[in-house]
Amino acid sequence: MTKYVKIISSGSYLPKNILTNKELESRVDTSDEWITERTGIKERRVADENETSVDLAYKASLDAIAKSNINKNDIGAIFLATCTPERKFPSSAVLLQNKLNIKNAFSFDINAACTGFVYALDVAKKYIESGQMKYALVVGTEKITSLLDWTDRNTCVLFGDGAGAMIIAASDEPGIISSTIGSDGSYKDLLTVNTDLEYIEMKGSDVFKTAVNTLGKLAKHTLEINSIEQGELDWLVPHQANERIILAIAKKINLSKDKIIITVSKHGNTSAASIPLAFDTANSKNTFKSGDMIMLEAFGAGFTWGSVLMKY
Ligand code: UT7
Predict the structure, then answer these.
(1) Are 65 and 72 in contact (CB under 8 A)?
(2) 1, 2, 7: which is closest to 176 by C-alpha?
(3) Average pLDDT of 177-181?
(4) Which residues line ligand 1 (CB under 6 A)?
(5) pTM higher than the cut 0.85
(6) Element spanning 139, H or E
(7) What kind of fold does domain 4-171 have according to CATH?
């Protein structure tokens, strides 16, 4: 059994096309002012028609692998979180494995909607702890704009495409201290893509309230079960759906805004990609110092939720 599991590198990729709030004003009855005030979003990225979630994942993974200084063939498994797979099958994880030309690994997809990356990290941590492998590639990738009804102002202004990845490894020192995941399918209709319609439908204010409530409790619980005082937390890297949700959670754990990584203004809600994208955006600027206490936290359709607490 391996004692600890550590993140050794992160990477990310954003498609080139930027879609601003101003541009959305010509598509639906909305305004830059409304979107900014209610969500904090200013712009988001939109993948090209022929660019898939696996293409985005590939670029983010190359970035993470390059920064890790490991040989890609030492990766024992690929855990890929997405709800916008390239194909119904084979899994996007397998397609990514093929693109990366990694031979000695197994790969599978995880779908927990916006919580997918935290679920994937939880699974990867457990595999590494079991001693089955030393390194794993964990990816969150979405071409979520392919699920948007561009005439529905309730949803089309909120989402964006992107991918983030991490290499995690067995380690002699901590590491991921704890990870917690949960779900409750009774909320299945509040945020969904029905297979007949193939578009995101959301009861926004119900999702908002449950997200704030669930994530507030989860953040407190995560600190409590690890005997971490609120003041000991250096960084919160939350799911980037809405800046108001993020700030409401921070208030519940007395965390000031300068300790929160907020990228929603530039990325929008990238679903399973949002946490690794936000993490890598900060990590690329050397924001995190060795020993920093970092919490990741996500909430998504299902509902699903999860948190990861780690020492960087
Ligand atoms: O990632 C998974 C989790 N997802 C989330 O966490 C999203 C959670 N929900 C939210 O972020 C917010 O609920 C929204 C941003 C979606 C909406 O904000 P809200 O403050 O909850 O607004 P609302 O849904 O209560 O709607 C207020 C008004 C409505 O008009 P009426 O009925 O009051 O006349 C909407 O029709 O705002 C209207 N509205 C818009 N107006 C201009 C909804 N979307 C827009 C828009 N532009 N894009």
Answers:
(1) yes
(2) 7
(3) 97
(4) 30, 34-35, 38-39, 114, 153-154, 157, 204-205, 207-208, 211, 241-242, 245, 269, 299-300
(5) yes
(6) strand 135-142
(7) Peroxisomal Thiolase; Chain A, domain 1 (3.40.47)
